[in-house]
Amino acid sequence: MCRGLTLIIVQKQFAEPAGTYVEGITSPRGPIWHSTGKSLTKECFPSAMAECSCRADDRHGDGLPYALKNTEVLVARNPCLHPGDLQKFKAVEHASLSHLVDCIVFPARGRRSPADMMSGGDLDGDKFLVCWDKDLIPSTLSQPAEYPTTEEPVKFRPITDDDRLVYVAEYTNASLGRVKNLYLDWVRVKGPMAPECQELNRLFSQCVDGIQIKIPPRLESIPVIPLDNQKFILDELHEAAAADIARGRLRETNLACAEFDIIELLVSRQDIAITEFELFKLTAKRCRRHGMCLGDFLSYFDMNSLTAEEKHWALSSTQQLQWAPSLILNALCTSKIVSENDIAHHELNSPRLRWKRTLPPKRSRKFRKSW
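Now predict its structure.
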């Protein structure tokens, strides 16, 4: 449901942005305040809409962050299988929170944490969809679901390597996809508030936490969907996305035989529906065909986004270049913070040093090497 809202926002192609994807935190100085200066005492329920603060980057304008002022917003997070996982807030501006960008500040008071009301989330790095498009904000909301707690017993001793091994061995989300597919099948027949959907929603919440579950056999027996059953918006979006992917693959096939400059291909990458590795392979193929050096184009690629297997493929394609392994395996070699001379002086350009950028670049392709 949350991804469906995101796709709707993207496909509507607003001249002004109507939604964003941000990280959730709580008010660092206590509760969010009303404009009158009084402390927020409203409880976090649909009948008494609570306040929040959201300041996002203007990716469609001058790039400067802007705050939502006295705006009703719809907030959700993945997974979003229960109607009550969608919550409304009143976004207000606070000068003390103006330094926070690309995050939503929730109130610190209330009977229940706002993040917990949205599919049992928390504020340890969860991402939230914030939408202020009036056409997508419902007038009424459902009560948030009660999600089962999975608290571990407190151990009054240091954590050992054996404890970590047991945790990793017992963690599993193998049933996650199966539960989600069963939920989507049941919701098409009976709706999201059906008992079967609610039970699958609770099982899904446990799967996300890595708990081993057992799906009851009665939930495996799905009623037949009527042929005249109206499609959900999410189904329409999935079909449209599948068609876009198919067109992108066809476009990729045509690119292999196209005759145009490789630089033009790399610069216009955002208009091509292929991955970074697929674009790398396409460039390598064209270089071999026209007798060009692949090393001249390595700086255009984000090697940080390649998997280990894809990096090995890239290494095999640049065996004749002695400096290529450092550029492919060591992300520090593409840093704009540390100069090339300093990297060489401290011998940090070795391919054995597997530096990796942790924050994705937010700028365009020609600035991709900036950290």
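The first strand starts at residue 19 and ends at 26.
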